[in-house]
Specification:
Belongs to the multicopper oxidase family. The chain has 568 residues and is mainly beta. It has 6 helices and 32 strands. It is globular, with a radius of gyration of 24 Å.
Length: 568
């Protein structure tokens, strides 16, 4: 009888576990209508492209293990795709979204349904348009919470609040892009930065709609900070409040306290804040970290308000006093950036690849195309700006996507001869010979065998100016095993690699005038874009792509394309 009873209890326990496992994995269905909307910002009225008429777009709330099915209806007048930034997309690159890389664009009036599963990911990611520069206004948060029955590896916060940092132009963003592409020069800088779509109190005609967060004394707040800015790294802080970093790019990190974080375009950082100050009003604020020399940038500051519910507004007619404004670093304060990034570590010993199969060295940076003086030659010294990796400026196909060409074996779309090392070695961060200024142009991919362990040295260059570049790898996380300044020296710098608890990211800021080294295992078949997340630089060609071959069996093989995949 006791044996039967024990068996029953065991069976019941197994049934409950299976039931929980079954219940916790949900499928979320969403409709995204890409459409124009009239909005007012900075005393001006203009039309922007949005999802569902919202700016920013809707926040997607899911749990680890859930599946998303998102039908995108393009009701705008421009082609569009949506990228789910940081989602691994295991075997489902058809849902990744970059235009002409994994799909042809969704044309006006057409639809496409993105289907993918969240696999072993928790934290803050985001989604955005990946078609020309439309992500200036087409973006939103993607929040992945732990599975039911699991919890955060830190005390559960009372409040969770997305802080989506963006850039705002008074002009039509595609007109801004077209002008830059036509002239060959740098685009006009933005007119404002935004927090959750609002510029904040320090801009004209903006005070009434400033983003606000109300807290009670003692509240713990999880701020999910996302840099959705098109072209700018940003410092972020909250007046008089310490921030405890607990995750970056939807990977938990070893907690550490700081006053300032720096978030590159594409990156996310989760921070805990305790409402432990005198009841009052405090600004959350963000402004540029601008590393290139003599390059124009938007030198304004966006704000939101952290307001204690118990704070009284005792001014005339019940007006509130001006919130406390925090001190932000100087725009070129690389020391603060370095102090922040070097503290990011995995919470425990990491499974870093140690035996490397593919050792790659990629230079990243801007260059020039020599041209005859005229309206289409308005870059520095009668040139047009270009950008490249290993001196190859990436050109997207137009006839079909790279992934379709790979899957259907369509010839003539791309080649697999992207160089593993720079064609010419030079003093990358010193004075660069004029003979090396102009890149070649091509659609070149690098082939990886399934399961291969990959190391990439990313080296900044000084052809135009040294610069911090946020480099994003689609379909993967990677370990950042080393960073430094100057030219990477393997005999000197390899010894300093962190192979114990390096951070995992999907977007790495290569230090200005320096280098970063990443490692990952090529365990996700398909074609995956690797590019600078400054959209101006992507347009100029600062990108390449990996062709990752299938492994053995169904679980290591690319899924077939969906029936509704858009046609070019």
């Amino acid at each position: 009888m006791e044996t039967l009873s024990n068996y029953f209890l065991l069976s019941l326990a197994v049934t409950l576990i299976l039931s929980v496992a079954f219940v916790e994995a949900e499928t979320h269905y969403h409709q995204f209508s890409v459409q124009a909307k009239t909005v007012q910002r900075l005393c001006k009225t203009r039309n922007i492209i949005t999802v569902n008429g919202q700016f920013p777009g809707p926040t997607l709330n899911v749990r680890n293990g859930d599946t998303l099915v998102i039908k995108v209806q393009n009701n705008a007048r421009y082609n569009i795709t949506i990228h789910w930034h940081g989602i691994r997309q295991m075997r489902t690159p058809w849902a990744d979204g970059p235009e002409f890389v994994t799909q042809c664009p969704i044309q006006p009036g057409a639809t496409y349904t993105y289907r993918y599963k969240i696999e072993d990911q928790e934290g803050t990611l985001w989604w955005h348009a990946h078609s020309r520069w439309l992500r200036a206004t087409v973006y939103g948060a993607l929040v992945i919470r732990p599975k039911l029955g699991s919890s955060y590896p830190f005390p559960t916060p009372k409040i969770e609040f997305p802080v989506v940092l963006g850039e705002w132009w008074n002009s039509n963003i595609l007109d801004t892009m077209r002008q830059a592409v036509f002239t060959g020069g740098a685009p006009n800088v933005s007119n404002a930065y935004t927090i959750n779509g609002q510029p904040g109190d320090l801009y004209a005609c903006s005070r009434q709609d400033t983003t606000r967060l109300s807290v009670s004394p003692g509240d713990t707040v999880l701020l999910r900070v996302i840099n959705a800015a098109l072209n700018q790294q940003l410092f972020f802080t909250v007046a008089n409040h310490r921030l405890t970093v607990v995750a970056a790019d939807a990977v938990y990190s070893k907690p550490f306290a700081t006053n300032i974080i720096m978030v590159g375009p594409g990156q996310t950082t989760d921070v805990l804040l305790t409402a432990n100050q005198s009841p009052g009003r405090y600004y959350m604020a963000a402004r540029a970290y601008a590393s290139p020399k003599n390059a124009p940038f938007d030198n304004t500051t966006t704000t939101a308000i952290l307001q204690y519910k118990s704070a009284s507004c005792s001014g005339r007619n019940g007006a509130c006093s001006r919130p406390i404004l925090p001190r932000l670093p100087a725009y070129n304060d690389t020391n603060t950036v370095t102090a922040f990034t070097t503290q990011l570590k995995s919470p425990s010993k990491a499974e870093v690849p140690l035996k490397i199969d593919e050792s790659l060295f990629f230079t990243v940076g801007l260059g020039f195309v020599f041209c005859n003086p005229g309206p289409r030659c308005q870059g520095p010294n009668n040139t047009r700006f270009a950008a490249s990796m290993n001196n190859v400026s990436f050109v997207l196909p137009r006839r079909t996507s790279l992934l379709q060409a790979y899957y259907q074996k369509i010839p003539g779309i791309y080649t697999t001869d992207f160089p593993a090392v720079p064609p010419v070695r030079f003093d990358y961060t010193g004075n660069v010979s004029r003979a090396l200024w102009q890149p070649t142009f091509g659609t070149k991919l690098y082939k990886l065998k399934f399961g291969s362990a990959v190391q990439i040295v990313l080296q900044d260059t000084a052809i135009f100016s040294t610069e911090d570049h946020p480099i994003h790898l689609h379909g993967y996380h990677f370990y950042v095993v080393g960073q430094g300044f100057g030219n990477f020296n393997p005999s000197r710098d390899t010894a300093s690699f962190n192979l114990n608890d390096p951070p995992q990211r999907n977007t790495i800021d290569v230090p200005v005038g320096g280098w970063a080294v990443i490692r990952f295992v090529a365990d996700n078949p398909g074609v995956w874009l690797f590019h600078c997340h400054i959209d101006t630089h992507l347009t100029w060609g600062l990108a390449m792509a990996f062709e990752v071959e299938n492994g053995v069996g169904e679980l290591q093989t690319l899924e077939p394309p969906p029936a509704d995949l858009p046609r070019c």
